[in-house]
Design brief:
The protein is an alpha+beta fold and 424 residues long. Strands 10, 11, 14, 15, 16, 17, 18, 21 and 22 form a 9-stranded antiparallel sheet that branches. A 5-stranded parallel sheet has the order 3-2-1-4-5, with helices on both faces. A 4-stranded antiparallel sheet has the order 6-9-7-8, with helices on both faces. The chain folds into 4 domains: 90 residues, Rossmann fold, CATH 3.40.50.20; 65 residues, Dna Ligase, domain 1; 128 residues, D-amino Acid Aminotransferase, Chain A, domain 1 (2-Layer Sandwich), CATH 3.30.470; 96 residues, Glycinamide Ribonucleotide Synthetase, Chain A, domain 4, CATH 3.90.600. The chain starts with a strand and ends with a helix. Helices cover 31% and strands 27% of the residues. α1 runs parallel beside α10 and α7 runs antiparallel to α8. The chain binds adenosine monophosphate (AMP) and glycine (GLY). The site of adenosine monophosphate (AMP) has 13 residues, from β7 and β16.
Length: 424
């Protein structure tokens, strides 16, 4: 099969690396890709949100199957457009992608299907939102309804700060996405990212990972797309997985179908492991980044088998995916300054040496080659240094050894405490 993958992050490099090993894939193309993806796929410079351009590429290259990595093209209706043109594609339709693109949609959905999540209220009016703050106790969880690149959630700890945030949301800090606001009950517990695949009717579990959202050690600093991940997540045992499948994932697949929006694709449940059991923080409708990189390293089955089974609505008939037992960690190397302003185009060396180290595999995110073949940074999150080991400690040690002894990039930084929850 000639397969087209959409995206350019570390998530997509990990997916491309697995697809390149698939018995089904004879040719792999990626739009737009990055320097690492270019080692295993032909890359074409079409942006992920250029859905018309992507359809044109599919038609001109005679692509057999499309896989969508990030959320933006899903929310824009890329899957609908491709399906309407007879193209096979893995990913949810625009209506089903509302599970990620509208938090109000998801909260209302959870309410109707009894899916455990934080209590909430939706506001479209500043005065009413302020009245709510007046009547309740901090901390407050305030969220923009629409996609806000992972920045649309704030947790002010005083009423004054909450009111100030609300004023900014309603005056357009997140554009239209922020003019509908959700105020939620504050939940406490450890967080986990759990992944399942649905074909619209049946869902099968993948595995869980834990992410590190804050930029700096000790979970300090601003929120980012994610600074590192590891799997397995010790907090997420077999029993937790069964509970989440039964109370969260299965009712979601059932409800989406019943409501006329059958969900085919990756269901990524962001969970809070509370004293009352796992509760849904949010849904994403694609793999997590940096979580996907550790999942792909642990997956021993053919990834394309899973995508094909989902697309042909035959997940109930396939064998469960198999996973390697060894823990895997992923330490993100980001450009200094990320997630605020940072330099692009700085020289990176030493990746071949890193990749030769035991258990280590580096996935690229924001990278590109210049005309002389030199590797340059080209984004905020730049490299994903993944390592497996017999223990989490060994995996962590190997990842940091690759960073400290092999990779030569003066303009990068990483967190030094990835997987601390699993080690303590
Ligand atoms: P979200 O974008 O909805 O995943 O939220 C971003 C982060 O905010 C989450 O990873 C949590 O750390 C935190 N968060 C979101 N909702 C809640 C909540 N109801 N209670 C406590 N923390 C939350
Ligand atoms: N790592 C969180 C996300 O991909 O949204």
């Amino acid at each position: 099969m000639k397969v087209l993958l959409i995206g350019s992050g570390g998530r997509e490099h990990a997916i491309a690396w697995k697809l390149a090993q698939s018995q089904h894939v004879t040719e792999l193309v990626c739009a737009p890709g990055n320097a690492g993806i270019a080692e295993v796929a032909a890359t074409v410079p079409i942006a992920v949100d250029d859905i018309i351009g992507i359809l044109g590429l599919v038609q001109s290259m005679d692509i057999d199957f499309v896989i969508v990595g990030p959320e933006a093209p899903l929310a824009l209706g890329l899957v609908d457009l491709l399906q309407d043109n007879g193209v096979r594609v893995f990913g949810p339709t625009q209506a089903a992608a509302q599970l990620e693109s509208s938090k109000a949609f998801t909260k209302d959905f959870c309410d109707r299907y009894n899916i455990p999540t934080a209590g909430y209220k939706v506001f479209t009016d500043l005065a009413a939102a302020k009245d709510h703050i007046k009547a309740h106790k901090p901390p407050f969880v305030i969220k923009a309804d629409g996609l806000a690149a992972g920045k649309g959630v704030v947790i002010p700890t005083t009423k004054k700060a909450a009111n100030k945030e609300l004023e900014e949301f309603f005056s357009g800090k997140f554009g239209e996405a922020g003019k509908k606001v959700i105020i939620e009950e504050f939940m406490t517990g450890q967080e986990a990212s759990f992944f399942a695949i649905s074909d619209g009717e049946t869902a099968i579990p993948l595995i869980a990972a834990q992410d590190h959202k804050r930029a700096h050690d000790g979970d300090k600093g601003p929120n980012t797309g994610g600074m590192g991940a590891y799997s397995p997540a010790p907090i997420f045992d077999q029993k937790a997985m069964e509970t989440v499948m039964e109370r969260i994932i299965q009712p979601t697949v059932y409800g989406m179908k019943k409501d006329g929006n059958p969900f085919m694709g990756v269901l990524f449940a962001g969970l809070m492991m509370t004293e009352q059991g796992p509760k849904l923080i949010e849904y994403n409708v694609r793999f997590g980044d940096p979580e996907c990189q550790v999942l792909m390293r642990r997956l021993s089955s053919d990834l394309m088998d899973i995508f094909i089974a989902a697309e042909t609505a035959s997940l109930s008939k396939v064998e469960a995916p198999a996973w390697l037992d060894e823990p895997v960690v992923n330490v993100v190397l980001a450009a200094k300054g990320y997630p605020s302003s940072y330099k692009k185009g700085t020289v990176i060396k030493g990746l071949d040496t890193a990749n030769d180290m035991e258990g280590v595999k580096v996935f690229h995110a924001g990278t590109k080659h210049d005309d002389k073949g030199m590797l340059l940074s080209n984004g905020g999150r730049v490299l994903n240094v993944t390592a497996s080991g017999e223990t989490v400690q060994q995996a962590v040690t190997r990842a940091y050894e690759a960073i400290d002894e092999a990779i030569d990039w003066k303009h990068g930084f990483c967190r030094r405490d990835i997987a601390h929850h699993a080690l303590s």
